[in-house]
Amino acid sequence: MKKNFHKTKIDIKTLSIELVKYLQKEGLNVKLKGGETLYVITAEKRVKGRIKRLAIEVSRNQEDVIIINFRNPTEFKPLMYSSLIWQFFGGGFLLKETYENIEFYQQIEKGFWRKVEELISTYG
What secondary structure letter does DSSP report for 37? Predict the structure, then answer.
């Protein structure tokens, strides 16, 4: 999901560092890379033996708008088959795993956007 924030005074470096701290508190291993106009946060967490990864881009454009793009792998893998077909062919466990992935990323993303709103309101 991508969101734009207008008329904010917070520096994107400060915002990115605070978001890294938040994600670390959530138990994710986090890395921050970037420069003046773009920071990329990559995070991963091992859940039930599988590694879940996500990437977040924090940038500021020429109109002084902060753009935050929360990318997660479930955005790009829509469920194209009904659950009955999956279960009929013995793929119910795959469907369950897919739904668990979606739930994991939705939980992280929901808390993430709350933290972004809190930081922007705190820093102005």
Answer: S
The region, left, alpha or beta by phi > 0 then psi within -120 to 50, assigned to residue 79 is: beta
Of the candidates 123, 3, 8, which has an alpha carbon nearest to the alpha carbon of residue 67?
3
Cα–Cα distance between 123 and 101 in angstroms, integer? 33
Tens-place pLDDT, residues 54-82: 999 999 988 889 999 998 776 545 454 45
Reduce the DSSP state of residue 118 to 3 states and report it.
Answer: helix
| Complete domains list, the chain, with CATH | 2-123 (3.30.310)
List residues bridging with 43 in a β-sheet: 30, 54
Closest CA to 1 of 123, 105, 122, 121: 105
Whether the predicted model's global pTM rises above the 0.85 cut: no
Q: Which residues contact 68 (CB under 8 A, 6 or more apart)?
A: 2, 3, 5, 56, 57, 58, 116
* Residue whose structure tokens are 């309101």: 121
The encoded tokens of residue 113 equal 């956007």
Query: 86-124 pLDDT, tens per residue?
Result: 555 666 666 677 777 788 888 999 999 999 999 999 886
